[in-house]
Amino acid sequence: MATEVTIIGAGLGGLALARVLHVHGIPSAVYEAESSPAARSQGGMLDIHDYNGQIALAAAGLTDEFRGLVLEGRQAMRVLAPDGTVLFDKVDDGTGGRPEVQRGELRRMLLDSLPAGTVRWGHKVTGARTLGDGRHEVTFADGGTVVTSLLVGADGAWSRIRPLLSAAEPEYSGRSVVETYLYDADTRHAAVAKTVGGGSMMAAKPGREIFAHREKGDTLHAYVGVVEPLEWFAGIDFTDAAAATERIAREFDGWAPELTALITDSDVAPVLRPLYALPAEHRWERVPGVTLLGDAAHLAVPNGEGANLAMLDGAELGQALAAHPGDVEAALTAYERAMFPRSAEAAAIGGGEDGEDPIQGLIAAVAQDGRPE
Ligand SMILES: Cc1cc2nc3c(=O)[nH]c(=O)nc-3n(C[C@H](O)[C@H](O)[C@H](O)COP(=O)(O)OP(=O)(O)OC[C@H]3O[C@@H](n4cnc5c(N)ncnc54)[C@H](O)[C@@H]3O)c2cc1C
């Protein structure tokens, strides 16, 4: 029987790996810090691309299930000027290569595709150490340990496995997003719902951005981007929802009211998310018995690729292990050789150059052909 693969983190990347391993008859155990699948809201919509995320789901044998989750019409895309002028408007004609799904439903689909007991909930990893012979010992918050000869860190931005391979740590990117939600938008927030349209909408000027999309039903979910240092945000009390809303909205003075309503009319308290990134060329020398995937390997400022890449990493790693039975190092070498340049290239998308604001590059690319490449 094949060696059991120990995966840390039941995000989309870790689960894609577990599923592809299962398809190939390779057992795995996924250790996840959260106490249950429902422990945290998995809000947000993801567009799953035909050039990475969909390839991963095909390798997982889940294309039909994925198609069943797609929200029709959500590939529509608009770009507005801050005064509300529509600069670009693309309808969803059903031919686009980036169908949208709810992240929570995608994660549930992957979870349901695994043998019962694969995911060990409530196992927060606090550290891992090498035993010197390709095996590693992983320690959990409750003091328990597990020893494994194949360890995969799929535990996201603040990976506890990464230090086995690299000294790199995520650094603040210089921008943060403030998340808001508007519920029952067609009836309760009709003007802003009309402005966002049937899919995604973005409006930006250097250093200030509003990105919104229509989620399942008529929920509007917005990311309000602000380029400021962390100290600037520290001066805002996000426990005081009204004051924080007012302070963020002030940064968008003069913008069209149907855009600023995405801040001021939120049905939930605004949530601050500082955006961190690893160096774009992050890589490491091969260390026997351990590797990373997804954000743990290549955390980047959100550009629509992260979840797609995490799933592709997981799928390709699973395929590499299946293709090299009995030779873990050959599999990990083949996986990393493809993953390193792919993630470096993706990190450059929307990354901005020479002081250019990232969203501007993204908007220009999207406006050009509907795909930021
Ligand atoms: C605001 C925002 C918007 C985004 N929008 C998009 C988008 O539209 N499209 C897209 O493709 N990507 C998007 N991304 C990026 C995407 O969310 C990530 O790239 C993706 O989730 C990475 O998947 P992952 O499996 O590597 O890690 P994660 O999704 O972070 O999963 C890691 C898992 O590991 C668990 N874990 C963490 N630490 C431990 C520990 N110590 N012990 C055990 N378990 C642990 C976590 O609980 C989690 O379940 C966005 C990111 C942000 C911040």
TrEMBL record:
<keyword id="KW-0560">Oxidoreductase</keyword>
<comment type="similarity">
    <text>Belongs to the aromatic-ring hydroxylase family. TetX subfamily.</text>
</comment>
<feature type="binding site">
    <location>
        <position position="295"/>
    </location>
    <ligand>
        <name>FAD</name>
    </ligand>
</feature>
<feature type="domain" description="FAD-binding">
    <location>
        <begin position="3"/>
        <end position="338"/>
    </location>
</feature>
<dbReference type="InterPro" id="IPR043683">
    <property type="entry name" value="TetX_monooxygenase"/>
</dbReference>
<keyword id="KW-0503">Monooxygenase</keyword>
<dbReference type="GO" id="GO:0004497">
    <property type="term" value="F:monooxygenase activity"/>
</dbReference>
<comment type="subunit">
    <text>Monomer.</text>
</comment>
<dbReference type="InterPro" id="IPR036188">
    <property type="entry name" value="FAD/NAD-bd_sf"/>
</dbReference>
<dbReference type="GO" id="GO:0071949">
    <property type="term" value="F:FAD binding"/>
</dbReference>
<feature type="binding site">
    <location>
        <position position="47"/>
    </location>
    <ligand>
        <name>FAD</name>
    </ligand>
</feature>
<feature type="binding site">
    <location>
        <position position="40"/>
    </location>
    <ligand>
        <name>NADPH</name>
    </ligand>
</feature>
<keyword id="KW-0963">Cytoplasm</keyword>
<keyword id="KW-0547">Nucleotide-binding</keyword>
<feature type="binding site">
    <location>
        <position position="103"/>
    </location>
    <ligand>
        <name>FAD</name>
    </ligand>
</feature>
<keyword id="KW-0285">Flavoprotein</keyword>
<keyword id="KW-0521">NADP</keyword>
<keyword id="KW-0274">FAD</keyword>
<dbReference type="Pfam" id="PF01494">
    <property type="entry name" value="FAD_binding_3"/>
</dbReference>
<dbReference type="InterPro" id="IPR002938">
    <property type="entry name" value="FAD-bd"/>
</dbReference>
<protein>
    <recommendedName>
        <fullName>Flavin-dependent monooxygenase</fullName>
        <ecNumber>1.14.13.-</ecNumber>
    </recommendedName>
</protein>
<dbReference type="GO" id="GO:0005737">
    <property type="term" value="C:cytoplasm"/>
</dbReference>
<comment type="function">
    <text>An FAD-requiring monooxygenase active on some tetracycline antibiotic derivatives, which leads to their inactivation. Hydroxylates carbon 11a of tetracycline and some analogs.</text>
</comment>
<dbReference type="GO" id="GO:0046677">
    <property type="term" value="P:response to antibiotic"/>
</dbReference>
